[in-house]
Amino acid sequence: MPRRRRPFIRSDANRDARLVIIATEDSKAAVTYFQALVSPDWYQSSRVHVEMLLRETTASAPRHVLQQLDRWRAEYQIGPDDELWLVIDVDRWGDAKLSDIARECEQKGIRLAVSNPAIELWFLLHLTDLDGYTEEEKAVLLENARSGRRRTRLEEAILEIAGQYNKSRLDVARYLPRVETAIERARSLDTRPSDRWPQGLGTRVYLLAQSIIESASYRRGGV
């Protein structure tokens, strides 16, 4: 007999909030970013509660991250307005594995926020659009090779503008004031939204950020 799922315990302030459950292969920068996004200084709201599923092991393949969402949903009841999100990158997994994951997410009603090639593109779009990059430079960003310093090309592009990038200690103050601009820039890159993930340079993280922001009842702080 299957175990009965129990309600997710919400605080009195968030009793009627829509749940947004996020599992990500990035155990540092993305977690810091989304936890800050719903902090009192930004988009904290009684209408939305974001729950980050922190990795219990070092396993970061999409299959392991997807299993986190499966376990969470098996344990807790979710409502029709609640959302489960899987946040992953193209660069380490390739089309074949992502195709299987995308198909499974669609079957299970899990939303997919894929960055091509990596989530650093999402952070870069907070700092600049890509209009100033030539097609050759964009191709280099998409390849996202590591340099001799072991940084990827996207990480280097962030460094060139921000002066620093530490995914273990993400400086959210550099990014969150520009999140709505990043959403618009990412949307402009998403020229084939019916595809399950961006086939070229792009990131669907904007859909997740947009969902959180649109659920917020008020905004405080920022510019």
Explain what this protein looks like in three dimensions.
- The chain is built from eight helices and seven strands; from the N terminus they run ββαβαββαβααααβα.
- The protein has 223 residues and is an alpha/beta fold.
- It has one domain.
- The strands form two sheets. A five-stranded mixed sheet has the order 3-2-5-6-7, with helices on both faces.
- It starts with 5 loop residues before the first strand and ends in an 8-residue tail after the last helix.
- 34% of the residues are buried.
- The C terminus is likely disordered.
**Which structural category fits the helices and strands?**
alpha/beta
Shape: globular
Radius of gyration: 17 Å
Distance between the termini: 53 Å
Number of structural domains: 1
Question: Order of strands across the widest beta sheet?
Answer: 3-2-5-6-7
Helix content: 25-40%
Question: How many distinct beta strands?
Answer: 7
How many H/I helices? 8
Q: Uncertain regions: pLDDT < 50 for 5+ in a row?
A: 218-223
Strand content: 5-15%
> What's the rounded overall pLDDT mean?
86
Elements, N to C (H/E): EEHEHEEHEHHHHEH
Largest sheet data:
5 strands, mixed
Summarize the structure.
By secondary structure, the protein is of the alpha/beta class. It has eight helices and seven strands; from the N terminus they run ββαβαββαβααααβα.
Layout of strands and helices, then pairs:
Blueprint: E1 6-7, E2 18-24, H1 29-37, E3 48-53, H2 62-75, E4 76-77, E5 83-89, H3 94-108, E6 111-116, H4 120-127, H5 135-143, H6 153-162, H7 179-189, E7 202-203, H8 205-215
Parallel strand pairs: 1-4, 2-3, 2-5, 5-6
Antiparallel strand pairs: 6-7
